[in-house]
Amino acid sequence: MKKSTLLVSLLTLLTITARAQIQMTKEQILFYTAEWKGERMADGRPKVSDNLLKRLKNISLEEAWGIMRKDGYNNQFEGNWQIIRPEKPMVGRVLTAQYMPGRPDMDKPIKEKGKAEGRKGNTNSWPIDLLQENDVYVADGMGKIVWGTLIGDNLGNSIYAKSKTGVIFDGSVRDLEGLEEIEGFNGWVRGFDPSYIQDMTMTCINCPIRIGRAIAMPGDVVLAKKEGIIFIPAHLAEKVILESEFVSIQDAFGHQMLREGKYTPGQIDQQWTAEIKQDFMKWIDQNPARVPMPRADLDKLLKSKNW
Q1: Which of 1, 94, 106, 283 is deepest in the core (most CB within 10 A)?
Q2: At which positions is Mg(2+) bound (predicted)?
Q3: Are residues 59 and 198 in the same domain?
């Protein structure tokens, strides 16, 4: 081989090695989440406010799903989960990880790259080290249950200490009893198994991943409830929350009117007349505790509503 050819080959190899990424760069995350114009985390993920996350817990999953579909987001829901605490909804900012079947010629450079970057332990602990409060660790574990347990109670304690939330794994976990002892920790998983993770490699952190029939992006907001989970793009989070809250106000008013017999189901279920709208505004003034959003947000929303 000529010296010039050898030099080109070595430079090419060094360039590929330098560019190889376990964790997506801030610039890559900005590329995938360009529609978000607000604050961002240090790693580049959109940072939807804590206040909106708190309000999201009270939103109906079906309402949020319907609002997103109007904007063309049809692949954001996934159901059929095993849930550690099904009575407790979970919300947070998504931090993603992708796992693939183990392969020696892939495992070795990934672990060497991780070591060079200062990452500690097995690859399944690397995403945990990056968690911030109100993050939710979301992983594509290929649906693997036996030998596919991404965490046990030790890693579960670390996850909760950092995030104060839990996990969503298209895969499994072990040590269920130990995980249940972590007060506040929750998880949506495909199954439970006493085996430990084997023949799997974590290949990417904060990249777009598939969770069943849904796609999850770093910085999405996740709403997890008994019936399933929904991933909300950060730039739609405020819209989804406001419009869902407005629907809940309408429903509360409509149900009361139906119980009192003031209006018929046909009147409430169709576009409201001027009389119903007027009664609705009076009802809002008389029931401020039933309005979950700031009044300024409600007034702004009403101006754009054709209801």
Answers
A1: 94
A2: 175
A3: yes
The CA distance from 183 to 162, in Å, is 14
- Has 166 been labeled as part of a binding site? no
Q: Are residues 214 and 252 in the same domain?
A: no
Final residue belonging to a domain, choices 209, 232, 255: 232
pLDDT below 70 — which residues of the chain?
1-20, 307
Q: Is 119 annotated as a binding residue?
A: no
List b or e across 274-307, with b for residues whose CB sees 16 or more CB atoms inside 10 angstroms: eebeebbeebbeeeeeebbbeeebbeebeeeeee
- Rounded CA-CA distance 263/257 in Å is 6
**Domain interval for residue 224:** 50-232
152 is in an annotated binding site: yes
DSSP 67-128: HHHHTT--S-EE---EESSTTS-EEEEEEEEEEEE--HHHHHHHHHHHHHTT--SSGGGTTG
Q: Is 251 annotated as a binding residue?
A: no
Binding residue per annotation — 154? yes
Give tens-digit pLDDT for 101-111.
999 999 999 99
Task: Report the relative pairing of strands 191-192 and 186-189 from DSSP bridges.
Answer: unpaired
Domain ends where: 172, 206, 232? 232
CA distance 188 to 228: 8
Pair (136, 262) in one structural domain: no
153 is in an annotated binding site: yes
**How many distinct structural domains can be found in the chain?**
2
